[in-house]
Amino acid sequence: MASKQKNRNVRRIDEFFSPQEVWEKRASTPSVKGAEQGELDVKGQPDTPAVTTASHSFQNLPTYPDIGLLSQEELKRNEVRRKILLGEWDQCHKFKFLFRCIHGTKRKLSQMYLVNYNWLRYSISKDSVCCANCVLFEKEGGVHQTGTFCFTQGFTDWSNIGRIVQQHSQSGTHFDALAKGENFLSVTNGA
Q1: What is the tens place of the pLDDT at every residue in 45-99?
Q2: 97, 126 Cβ separation under 8 angstroms
Q3: CB 169 within 8 A of CB 149
Q4: Which residues lie below 8 Å from residue 51, measured CB to CB, with a gap of 6+?
């Protein structure tokens, strides 16, 4: 009985902090525009605080453009495709990913997925991940086997990301997009 009373007096650290208000979206590209303004909105996530880039130095942000902010026309440009495919995020372990409430539990993206699956790209503006090759080189009107790495939405269910990434990495659509990406880079490199 005494141990139950003792546990009631113990408070979790997150009980001392209140959630931040969601700010208005101010940027078109967080690594260039908006980062100096210090805040970005995460659309459609009323319980999720905005990303504050003031807490992230420019060195901690991805070197690739934010896919969530690009139009279909921009995704067809060769220079944009090259930046997305060749871009790296060496400092993703220093980035503070947002928490989402999924099935009553607060979860966030583990940087391990971005390190282990080099074709995944994180969209800061949408707090989602997508397959860069599939976004850039999928067939017109094509649907991915898992249907989770599309341009319009991206993937945000951090509780199931391991299973879904594994399924996606073994799909025929993904293999085709990887081959198209490699061919695109070899042609644009002049090889």
Answers
A1: 333 334 444 445 556 789 999 998 999 899 999 999 999 999 999 889 999 999 9
A2: no
A3: no
A4: 30, 39, 40, 42, 98, 124, 127
| Start-end of H helices in the chain | 2-9, 72-75, 78-86, 111-116, 132-137, 161-169, 172-188
What percentage of the chain carries pLDDT values higher than 90?
Answer: 42
Its pTM surpasses 0.70: no
| Rounded Cα gap, residues 75 and 59, in angstroms | 24
Residues with Cβ < 8 Å from 114, sequence gap 6 or more?
A: 89, 92, 120, 122, 129
137 strand-pairing partners: none
Q: Which helix (H) or strand (E) holds 121?
A: strand 120-123
User: Within 13 Å, how many C-alpha atoms sit on residue 74's CB side?
Assistant: 13
Q: Using alpha carbons, select from 80, 60, 44, 38 the residue that is nearest to residue 156.
A: 44
